[in-house]
Amino acid sequence: MKPHFLLLLTLLTGGCAHLPNTDPITLAHINAWLAADEYGNALAALQRQTQQRPGNDSLRSMLQTAQKSASRYAEEKIAAANQLAKQNHWDKALQEIDDAREHWPQSAVLRVARDELETRRQQRIEQLQLELLLHEGRSLLETARQHRELELVNPGYLFLDWDLRKYQAKRRAVARKLLEVGLQVQEEGDLRLAQHCFVMAQRLEDSPEIKAALRSLPRIERVEESEKYQPQRHQPIVRYASRKVKRQQHVGRLLAEYARVRDRNDLAAARRIMLQMLEINPNHPRVRELKAEQDVLIQQSVQRSIARGDDLYSQERIKEAVDVWQAALQLDPFNKELRNKLDRAKTALKTLQEIKQNPR
Q1: Contacts of 53 (CB under 8 A, 6+ apart)
Q2: DSSP-assigned letter for residue 190
Q3: What is the C-alpha to C-alpha distance for residues 41 and 60, in angstroms, rounded to an integer?
Q4: CATH number 1.25.40 is the correct assignment for the domain at 243-353
Q5: What is the DSSP string of 324-356?
Q6: Helix H or strand E segment including 114
Q7: pLDDT tens track for 155-192
Q8: Which of 141, 155, 273, 331 could, after both became Cys, cross-link 258 (CB 3.0–4.6 A)?
């Protein structure tokens, strides 16, 4: 990792204040970073300069352009990673995202995309493991025929009982695993795959638990016992999914939306989406992590707005100060200091209005 990227790893939680102050950062530095796709440095520097000079339209326009370029860069890298994943090059796909994050460490979009890619990889692993389990079940059913034939051909075979006990134990183990997987995919909404697991499990061990699982399924097309079913767990039947799974899917969509607005530095929109995610699942690990980071960013933004408003108020630009504080209050609605400043400023505005209307 390049040395200047190390300084940026904490920017997401600490804002632009972590940029080095020893050497002044010029527009030439920023343009060079943008040309090299080093969006972490470029955006951090531009955000810092626009905060220091909020009235500079040229800087604000440059920041917006850089943010759009960074978003396109992230989209291209995510698309490339998805293409690699389709080809089953999962390590290369994850590396594509990791390389992009070195160029833009603060990007919530890239971070969420990596989480989603890792989830899909795990789903693919589970799918392959299930296919192997179903194949093992079919092999065990075929082995049953061979055991019966061996018993007829060689009834005095010394190790027959021992082999049968091992075989029966293996059948029970595979049947129970199929029952476990079937219940899981049933919760995810793939009823056809769940039924296939239960049917195969019942052929291996006709237990009360497996019978109960089959009875619990809604009425759907019967899976033929001999069918070479190919699981498609990456495309579950969402309408049959459990409430828990639907909540997880909803949070996943909100996380993607949240990441996009965070990368645009739209903290007000990010806060609204965060409140929705916390209402759905307050214990989601990624949501809790992003919430902690967002709290720091909001606190820093509010403190800058308070200072900016104080400066405007001291210049008797009271209406502008009110606008700045009002915007900050949207991010931190329970901030007593902001409310007190707003009340005082609104009172001053009202007094000035009365003086204008009733001059002596």
Answers
A1: 59
A2: -
A3: 16
A4: yes
A5: HHHHHHHH-TT-HHHHHHHHHHHHHHHHHHHHH
A6: helix 108-153
A7: 665 455 667 788 889 999 999 999 999 999 888 888 88
A8: 273
